[in-house]
Amino acid sequence: MVLAATSACLQNTVEYVLWIATALTASELFLQQVRAAHAALGIASDYMQSCALPLCPEPAQLVATELDYYQRPQQLTPAALAAWHGMKQAAARAGVTLFLISAYRSVQCQSELIAKKLQKGQTMQQILSVNAAPGFSEHHTGRALDMGTTDCPALVEEFENTNAFQWLEQNAMAFGFHLSYRRDNAMGIDYEPWHWCFQGQDQQSTQA
Ligand SMILES: [Zn+2]
Questions:
Q1: 77 C-alpha to ligand 1 centroid (Å)
Q2: Distance CA 198, CA 145 (A)
Q3: pLDDT over 70 at 169, yes or no
Q4: Distance of CA 196 from the midpoint of ligand 1 (Å)
Q5: Residue ranges covered by each domain of the chain
Q6: What is the 155 CA–ligand 1 centroid distance (Å)?
Q7: Ligand 1 centroid from CA 137, angstroms
Q8: Helix, strand, coil distribution of the chain in percent, nearest 5
Q9: Backbone φ, ψ for residue 190 (5° rounding)
Q10: 42 C-alpha vs ligand 1 centroid, how far in Å?
Q11: What mean pLDDT value characterizes the chain?
Q12: How far apart are the CA of 81 and the centre of ligand 1, in A?
């Protein structure tokens, strides 16, 4: 019995060490990807140390959502999707329409988005006041959503004047969603009343 218990314990330890090694490898790979993306875009090499935003690793699992406002496929983590659907349905019962504008975005996608803006003549400083650098966007986590409603154009500050925003301010927290970038936030990101992040139980599905 003692031998069997010891063997089981040893196996658990080996599995744990392998799990840690895999997590570290994933973490290092993610950092390498982010550093390469920054170098390709010309983002200063000290950005990662000086950035006020946290690093946002991509999740281990993503699932398809409904099509977004522009009829594009989107993805969220399973828990974020369940919370989003629960919140959207509760809002509908209160007479408030919420719809999805954008959800998961890869590091590659964020890089392409910034590269397009550079090509259009925007400076990196202008771009980084609106978009997080690759690796630092909450959209990488699969838990952040840009939301819209029927009586307001997409992704504009006037969203704060809608019934949808008032409803979110009062109810989103009950579903695990938080407004990420409030006005004059310390992270240096412009105010985004449409951007909410689910901070529920998806931490364990996020790669370290
Ligand atoms: Zn967003």
A1: 15
A2: 8
A3: yes
A4: 7
A5: 2-205
A6: 9
A7: 8
A8: 50, 10, 40
A9: -55, 150
A10: 23
A11: 89
A12: 15
> 142 C-alpha vs ligand 1 centroid, how far in Å?
11
Q: How far is the centre of ligand 1, averaged over its atoms, from the C-alpha of 195 (Å)? A: 5
Q: What are phi and psi of 64, to 5 degrees?
A: -75, 140
User: Which of 71 and 11 is assigned the larger pLDDT?
Assistant: 71
Please report where in the chains the tokens 């029927």 appear, as a residue: 150
pTM here?
0.84
Q: Are 63 and 77 in contact (CB under 8 A)?
A: yes
Q: Residue 179, SS3?
A: strand
Tell me how far the alpha carbon of residue 9 lies from the centroid of ligand 1, in angstroms.
45
Quick one: which of 128, 93, 92 has its CA closest to 110? 128
pLDDT digits (tens, 9 = 90+) for 139-163: 999 999 999 999 999 999 999 999 9
- CA 87, 90, 96, 97 torsion-angle sign: positive
Provide CATH code, domain 2-205: 3.30.1380.10
CA of 19 to the centre of ligand 1 (A): 31
What are the tokens at 93?
Answer: 């019962």
